[in-house]
Write a structure and sequence with these properties.
heterodimer, A: about 500 residues, mainly alpha, 19 helices, 2 strands, B: about 375 residues, alpha+beta, Endo-n-acetylneuraminidase fold, three-stranded mixed sheet, 8 strands, globular
């Protein structure tokens, strides 16, 4: 079709045209709608980009391609997870002598993980493998010299490695593997701290170590799971694939797909570019948040599908792993709640390994160190560091301010929800308390819009964002949120 | 008797010249770019409405084009927009050159771009390419907006773009735009001569750039803003981008000569049922140059120097044009004024100056009076 251009042979068959209609059109007296439209179009010049397309159009141009591309990317990964679960499930056949030895299962975990990594990152998986291998070396050496320093030395090693990556690697590559690297770093540091504080007695052998770090269910999107949880791959026969397992997988997958569509298409369709700048900021931040929920739900799918992330209550298996709780983030009680619910496994990790290790230095220092560690883990770019450190300050100010208020008014308006049997005079259900908490929630939404604004779909999201980008975005909103926090803090000091 | 004889001859001449003008009837749609501009020949809005079809300003289309437009409701708006886009873009791209894409006063069958389109020079090639591209672009945009009812979506085109990504969405908007432009624009070029071929080639080149520059827009998903997984969709390029590319092609346009009327297609595509038409081939004028490909602009006549008023192309010359005294390029006074020299006049402007930033967030400026120099060609 492309080639027969010169001949003009593909003109429409004009004999089909209704001549009467045409004559009426050309000679008739009434003005046809499109001519009217034509004349109207020149009267008012509406920029084309600001018109909302129809739902059908949205489906065809955005929703459907997003859906199919996401599925194309995911199905192989989900298959790998499922096959891995099958392999683990059938490794125990009842009698001990026929069992597949543990090292072989760990090895298969590593192999499946490498396959998955290759699907997403091709040759760039080398950097992740290198990081893990070097980390093992450091771990062995430190363990041999003095086990107590494992946690510290591995933390230092990871920071050095991350800095090297940040400055030496091509930014597109680094930006694409950064997510996997965060999970990997958390796992490595977690194991090291477990060793140094004595909660893990047995030094992990090389198969278990690599199997853990490259476990297919967590290697791409996370979530972080502990080494103890990982060891359940050896006892998968205790976690059969029952109806709740299937339901959990289905539920999380559906949520993930809905979130990715919201993030890519629906949010931008609902709020067009001609709104007030704060509404736009809210939209961009929300698009980013939904993208995060997508990843969170997806990580639930992969980890559950590969048979991990469950708790045992007596003989009952509960697939109750939650990575993120969108409800508590979209309608927050406080920023503290947002930070907690943003990524629950990561929150636990930070609490267990960083906060508790830094506790002897004092409360404030421990909180501060936790946010610094979180910022370092996320890579050393200015944007993330600015957002995370701002969040640290915000949550601190909010926490002390609301604590003080709750004492003054004797009401349940702390940053964290009171228990039902708390000693405050005004309980959770009291209308004033409800109103106050709602107000704080709205302020929280405002801060979130401000902080999440810069993760927009600019041209930069393949390479990461620069410092100018961050400052430009914030200064377009006059740094209002920072001023509000400063004001709150001063007010807190005065009362 | 002699008078009668002479008047007959004059009448015949007139007839011939008008006949010649009818050659370019197909490009009269360009004048749709002027729709909506205030015009004197309409007394009232009512007159506007009733004479709309007979008014040469509003529907200067050929019969075939009218049919096409009737068959695809909604396209006429897009075409008019496209025509205006083409004119704006052409004037933007050529604002620093001697020929600055001037627009003629309409009326009496005059062409919008003037007689230059009767030539076969680079500028002609550009006009054809940009107008055809503009229609393709504008119709595709209208198609995406849903304002054309006949453009539907099918999922024919799945182009693998890169390893990790495959387009699965509706690609038809651009295709519809391209097809429509092909039917609508090329219908004008009837005949078997060389100029016809050149125009068709340039029309097609313009459209191809629109299609080729279809942008994919992507969004990254991953932990804390990293880019583990990427979803993409298609978006039309800005027309400015198409204009820039066509301007590049204009600078590198190839001069062609009619090749021998090759009986076989050199590409070897044996499309049967061509009704035995022979295909003219475009051969580069310089045999050492490569043959122009489908996205190159072609011309066969060297451009005039556009220095002086030239009635044969309806160009007023560069006299009176503003130029840049310090530039050595084509916008510089030496080249722009073709060595005739230029006059410099000083004038004063009042503008904001020595602005200071006051915390927070206010910018305060003074008003300064500045003297500036304007250079215009003699």
């Amino acid at each position: 079709m492309e080639e027969d251009l010169y001949m003009g042979d593909d003109f429409p068959d004009l004999s089909e045209i209704d001549e009467d209609l045409l004559r009426a059109y050309l000679e008739g007296n009434e003005v046809s709608p499109e001519i009217e439209e034509l004349l109207k179009a020149y009267g008012q010049d509406v920029p084309e980009a600001l018109a909302r397309v129809t739902v059908k159009e949205l489906w065809e141009n955005c929703l459907s391609p997003t859906f199919s591309q996401t599925m194309e990317n995911l199905i192989p990964l989900l298959l790998l997870c499922f096959v891995f679960k099958l392999v683990c499930s059938f490794s125990k056949s009842g009698s001990d002598d026929q069992d597949i030895p543990p090292w072989l299962i760990h090895l298969s975990s590593l192999m499946f993980g490498l396959l998955a990594l290759h699907m997403f990152f091709q040759r760039n998986l080398f950097y992740l493998v290198l990081c893990t291998a070097l980390a093992y070396l450091v771990l062995v050496i430190t363990n041999w010299r003095n086990r107590d320093f494992c946690g510290i030395s591995l933390s230092v090693y990871i920071i050095v490695y991350l800095i090297a990556c940040e400055f030496m690697m091509e930014s597109t590559v680094w930006h694409s593997i950064r997510g996997a690297q965060i999970i990997l770093s958390m796992k490595i540091i977690g194991v090291a701290f477990d060793l140094s504080n004595g909660s893990m007695i047995e030094f992990p052998d090389i198969f278990a170590y690599f199997g853990y770090n490259f476990c297919v269910g967590t290697v791409i999107f996370g979530p972080w799971i502990s080494f103890t949880e990982y060891k359940h791959i050896l006892s998968q026969h205790k976690r059969p694939m029952k109806i709740f397992w299937i339901l959990k997988v289905m539920f999380s997958l559906t949520c993930a797909l809905l979130c990715v569509m919201c993030s890519t298409c629906i949010v931008h369709w609902l709020i067009l570019d001609n709104h007030f700048k704060w509404v736009i900021a809210y939209r961009d931040a929300q698009s980013f948040r939904f993208s995060h929920y997508f990843i969170s739900f997806l990580s639930e799918v992969t980890v559950i599908l590969s048979g991990l992330g469950a708790t045992h209550v007596n003989d009952d298996v509960r697939w109750d792993l939650r990575v993120s709780k969108p409800y508590h983030i979209e309608m927050p009680r406080s920023l503290v709640e947002v930070v907690t619910n943003w990524n629950l496994p990561m929150h636990n990790w930070l609490k267990n390994y960083i906060f508790k290790s830094a506790r002897p230095l004092g409360n404030f220092a421990a909180v501060f160190l936790t946010y610094v560690a979180s910022a370092l883990l996320h890579g050393l770019n200015f944007q993330l560091a600015a957002v995370l450190l701002s969040l640290g300050i915000y949550t601190y100010v909010e926490f002390v301010f609301r604590n003080k208020l709750s004492v003054i008014f004797d009401a349940c308006i702390k940053a964290r929800k009171c228990k039902d049997n708390c000693e405050h005079k005004y309980k959770n259900k009291h209308p004033y308390v409800l109103a106050a908490n709602l107000l704080f929630g709205i302020v929280g939404i405002f801060h979130l819009a401000y902080l999440g604004l810069m993760f927009d779909t600019g041209g930069q999201d393949e390479t990461g964002y620069s410092m100018e980008h961050t400052l430009k975005k914030w200064s377009s909103l006059n740094f209002l949120s920072h001023w509000v926090i400063l004001g709150t803090f001063l007010f807190h000091l005065m009362i | 008797m002699k008078i009668l004889y002479w008047s007959l001859i004059v009448l015949m001449m007139l007839y011939l010249t008008t006949g010649k003008k009818r050659r370019h009837k197909g490009t009269q749609w360009w004048s749709l770019a002027k729709t909506g501009e205030p015009s004197n020949d309409l007394d009232s809005p009512a007159a506007h409405a009733t004479h709309i079809y007979t008014s040469p300003t509003l529907l200067p289309l050929t019969k075939k084009q009218r049919r096409l437009v009737t068959k695809n409701p909604g396209t006429i708006v897009a075409i008019a927009k496209g025509a205006r886009m083409a004119v704006d873009e052409c004037q933007y791209q050529f604002k620093d050159r001697r020929w600055n894409c001037p627009i003629q006063e309409l009326g009496h069958g005059k062409n919008l771009f003037g007689k230059i389109i009767e030539k076969g020079c680079r500028e002609t090639a550009f006009i054809y390419a940009i107008t055809s591209a503009a229609v393709a672009h504008s119709v595709a945009r209208a198609c995406a907006d849903g304002s054309i009812y006949t453009c539907t979506c099918n999922y024919n085109l799945r182009q693998p773009n890169g390893v990790d990504w495959e387009w699965g969405g509706c690609s038809d908007n651009a295709n519809f735009g391209k097809k429509f432009s092909r039917k609508f624009v090329d219908v004008a070029e009837k005949g078997r001569d060389f100029r016809y071929m050149m125009n068709l080639h340039n029309n097609e080149a313009g459209r191809r750039h629109v299609k080729r520059e279809m942008e994919r827009e992507c969004k990254c998903h991953g932990m804390s803003g990293s880019c583990t997984i990427k979803t993409c969709w298609m978006r039309l390029p800005l027309f400015r981008q198409v204009g820039n590319i066509l301007k590049d092609r204009f600078d590198g346009a190839s001069r062609v000569l009619p090749g021998n009327e090759g009986s076989n297609d050199s590409e070897g595509n044996n499309n049967g049922g061509r009704r035995g038409k022979k295909k003219l081939r475009l051969e580069p004028a310089d045999p050492n140059h490569k043959r122009p490909d489908k996205r190159d602009l072609v011309y066969f006549e060297e451009s005039p120097n556009f220095c002086d008023k030239d009635d044969s192309i309806g160009f007023l010359g560069t006299s009176g044009r503003e130029c840049n005294a310090t530039s050595i390029g084509i916008d510089g006074c030496d080249l722009m004024c073709c060595g005739r020299g230029y006059k410099s006049e000083t004038y004063t402007v009042r503008e904001r100056c020595s602005c200071t930033f006051h915390w927070c967030c206010e910018v305060k400026c003074k008003v300064c009076t500045r003297t500036k120099i304007r250079h215009t060609c003699y």
